[in-house]
Amino acid sequence: MPLTFLRRPLAAALLAATALAVPAAIHAQSLTGAQRGEIEGIVKDYLLAHPEILEEMSAELTKRQTAADAEKHAAAVKKNADLIFNSPRGVLIGNRNGDVNFVEFFDYNCGYCKRAMSDMLDLIKADPKLRVTLKEFPVLGPGSVEAAQVAVAVRMQDPAGKKYLDFHQKLLGGRGQADKAHAMAAAKDAGLDMARLEKDLSSPEVRATLQENFKLAEDMGLNGTPSYVVGNQVVVGAIGIDGLSKKINEARCGKASC
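Below the sequence we write its predicted structure tokens.
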């Protein structure tokens, strides 16, 4: 990494001292203890005199790590694109023929997901070209797993997603810890066939759906909820409607504002 402080006035003295102590033909391994000590002393004194350098270096490191993560995420999205965007195990709402994919991984016991739900609904209303997919990602304990299992059974009964969305809002917007009992109550309120729901809960499809979602999350490095895939970008955490709108625009036209 190019060190910013090498462009500062004292850099010349640092380089000159280093050059005197270390002739070009001598490898670093051949430095004497005194030479190493002299160089270390020069660097230490400079950093003590200019501690802001450390902030600049830290910022540059963060920038590079963010870029590396984005590249890694984009590769994972490309590798898993068909499952992320087109798997029949996702719940597709919004415009099914939309020009921007917006996929949310959520947990019914995630407080941030409750607030993020209103962001998603507002985005759907404001953007008729948005293609939204919901994926259960129960990471917050047994109650979350039970609620997600019921959600999958709801999707099996309602592939169009209309009743699922009603169920989703009732459960995620409800009070108390989400679990099977709360999920079943939300499903009943949404008008699902409860006998079929109980039957579908024991279907291998429920387990397969959650396994698929967890595998996708692992491949993309998702470690919390809500997490999103917007276009080819991965977003971990609730960034608010303005942040999500920016990501949608970047996916649509390559800029934060289209």
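Residues 1-27 have pLDDT under 50 and may be disordered.
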